[in-house]
Amino acid sequence: MISLAGRDILHAWGKFVFTGVGLGLLIGVTLTMAGVYRGMVDDAKALLDNSGADLWVVQKDTLGPYAESSSLNDDTYRSILTMPGIAQANNVSYLTMQVRSGDSDVRAMVVGIAPGQVGRPGWPPYLVAGRQLTRSHYEAVADVATGFKLGERITIRRNHYAVVGLTRRMVSSGGDPMVFIPLKDAQEAQFLKDNDAILQQRRRTGENPAFNRPGVPGLLEAVIASQSGNPYVNAVLVRIKPGYAPDAVAQSIQRWKRLTAYTLPQMEAILIGKLIATAAKQIGMFLVILAIVSATIVAFIIYTLTMDKIREIAVLKLLGTKNRTIAAMIMQQAVALGLIGFVVGKITATFAAPLFPKYVLLMPGDTALGFLAVVVICVLASIIAIRAALKVDPAEAIGG
Question: At 108, is the secondary structure helix, strand, or coil?
Answer without folding.
Answer: strand
